[in-house]
Specification:
The complex is a heterodimer of chains A (about 110) and B (about 110).
Chain A lengths: L3 E4 L2 E4 L4 E8 L5 E7 L6 E7 L2 E5 L6 E7 L2 E7 L7 E8 L7 E2 L3 E5 L1
Parallel strand pairs in A: 2-11
Antiparallel strand pairs in A: 1-3, 3-8, 4-5, 4-9, 5-6, 7-8, 9-10, 9-11
Chain B lengths: L8 E5 L4 E6 L7 E8 L6 E6 L2 E4 L4 E4 L5 E6 L8 E9 L12 E6 L1
Parallel strand pairs in B: 1-9
Antiparallel strand pairs in B: 2-7, 3-4, 3-8, 5-6, 6-7, 8-9
The chains are: A mainly beta (about 110), B mainly beta (about 110).
């Protein structure tokens, strides 16, 4: 299995909702990432997990809460989001300390 | 990570070879050069990585001059399906897992 699977593919949520994005990989990668991408912009790094521990938080607001339950799964918990948080959220994985990332197809999030 | 500079966009005709340039003047000794391709509403896809001279795989070639301050991604005989944004990234592969994307280069292949 050489894929990163993200669910759901699309999500519409209200500003008072709580939702979660899920990401799964079975390549044995020990680093996993969340990126946010707005239209016509490059992906922006949000969080990095290395060996299931949060190693990088790029000053992301607390309404985004990452979780890594095990080496294959990565979640992003969402609460009280703003309309400007609407974007494509991308999950990626890699071997530790590698620049060869495998990205999922993303979750298209719309906050209304 | 070393900062990269790429042209914003370029057009090419189907069947031609496309050369996409990237400038990275402050590349460090331990840095590698990595290229990604991204189609609309999909995640980026790893294309190729190199340190110096030339690297070739089934998809593309990467040319890196001796001073390593720039690199060129070469796509042979492009098709319409090669229309995408191409990102050049520079970083230490033994670093801290912080892969930062620059603005990228929108390549449009014209029939």
């Amino acid at each position: 299995d050489t894929e990163v699977t993200q669910t759901p593919k699309h999500l519409v949520m209200g500003m008072t909702n709580k939702k979660s994005l899920k990401c799964e990989q079975h390549m044995g990668h020990r680093a996993m990432y969340w990126y946010k991408q707005k239209a016509k912009k490059p992906p922006e790094l949000m969080f990095v997990y290395s060996y299931e521990k949060l190693s990088i938080n790029e000053s992301v607001p607390s309404r985004f809460s990452p979780e890594c339950p095990n080496s294959s799964l990565l979640n992003l918990h969402l609460h009280a989001l703003q309309p400007e948080d609407s974007a494509l959220y991308l999950c990626a994985s890699s071997q530790d300390r590698s620049m060869w990332y495998t990205f999922g197809s993303g979750t298209r999030l719309t906050v209304v | 990570l070393a900062k990269t500079t790429q042209p914003i966009s370029m057009d090419s005709y189907e069947g031609q070879e496309v050369n996409i340039t990237c400038s990275h003047n402050n590349i460090a000794t331990n840095d590698y050069i990595t290229w990604y391709q991204q189609f609309p509403s999909q995640g980026p896809r790893f294309i190729i990585q190199g340190y110096k001279t030339k690297v070739t795989n089934e998809v593309a070639s990467l040319f890196i001059p001796a001073d390593r301050k720039s690199s060129t991604l070469s796509l042979p005989r492009v098709s319409l399906s090669d229309t995408a944004v191409y990102y050049c990234l520079v970083g230490d592969i033994g670093g801290n897992n912080r892969l930062a994307f620059g603005k990228g280069n929108q390549v449009v292949v014209i029939p």
